[in-house]
Design goal:
The protein is mostly beta strands and 185 residues long. The chain is built from three helices and 17 strands.
Length: 185
């Protein structure tokens, strides 16, 4: 059987469209600040559910535009903040109940232009990487949970307690290709 390619065009990362998957952080017009300093500095709270925070700097080189796996973390929110580098794309699908899996029609792809960060809801299916859409590597600060990160070593054996992995080739006989035409600078 021939492997199918599902081509998706990234859409802008905006709060209203991204709400089923998580929250956009740093978007203009994001509401009243939770803090205003005497110098005019403003601050907004970022609600997260992490028992033992782990901070990781992630760099992904431009090695293609395919998404072949999605994962979800059952017990943790994760935050990603841009550290520079090129634009990237993120594939996501809404959280599912129990053993239910998302289908190809459930996946959306968002363009990460490096101007804002985001927090994923618990259980949101997402690509393992922020896929570079230019010739530059993409750089992100990830805030995750130490136990969830350590548990990733158990995913290949099926013994992970905090993460589920969806191999698109096996589940859908397909891969997702990100349409990057016109996105490269």
């Amino acid at each position: 059987m021939t492997m199918k390619t599902i081509t998706l065009r990234p859409q802008p990362l905006a709060s209203a469209r991204f709400a089923p998957y998580g929250k956009v952080i740093g978007e203009p017009g994001h509401g009243e600040p939770d803090f205003v300093g005497s110098s005019g500095t403003q601050g907004w709270k970022v609600e997260m559910d992490i028992a033992k925070p782990l901070y990781m700097a992630l760099s992904t080189p431009p090695v293609g535009h395919l998404v072949t796996q999605l994962e979800r973390h059952l017990n943790v929110t994760q935050a990603f903040f841009p550290l520079g580098g090129g634009m990237a794309a993120l594939a996501v699908a809404k959280p599912t109940e129990g053993d239910a899996l998302p289908g190809p029609a459930d996946v959306e792809v968002f363009l990460l232009d490096g101007s804002v960060g985001y927090v994923l809801h618990k259980g949101t299916w997402h690509g393992l990487d922020r896929v570079p859409v230019t010739e530059a590597s993409t750089m992100w600060l990830m805030i995750t949970d130490s136990d969830t990160q350590a548990d990733l070593a158990n995913v290949p054996s099926g013994g992970a307690r905090h993460t589920h992995l969806l191999e698109l080739r096996q589940a859908w006989n397909a891969v997702i290709e990100i349409d990057v035409r016109g996105l490269a600078k």
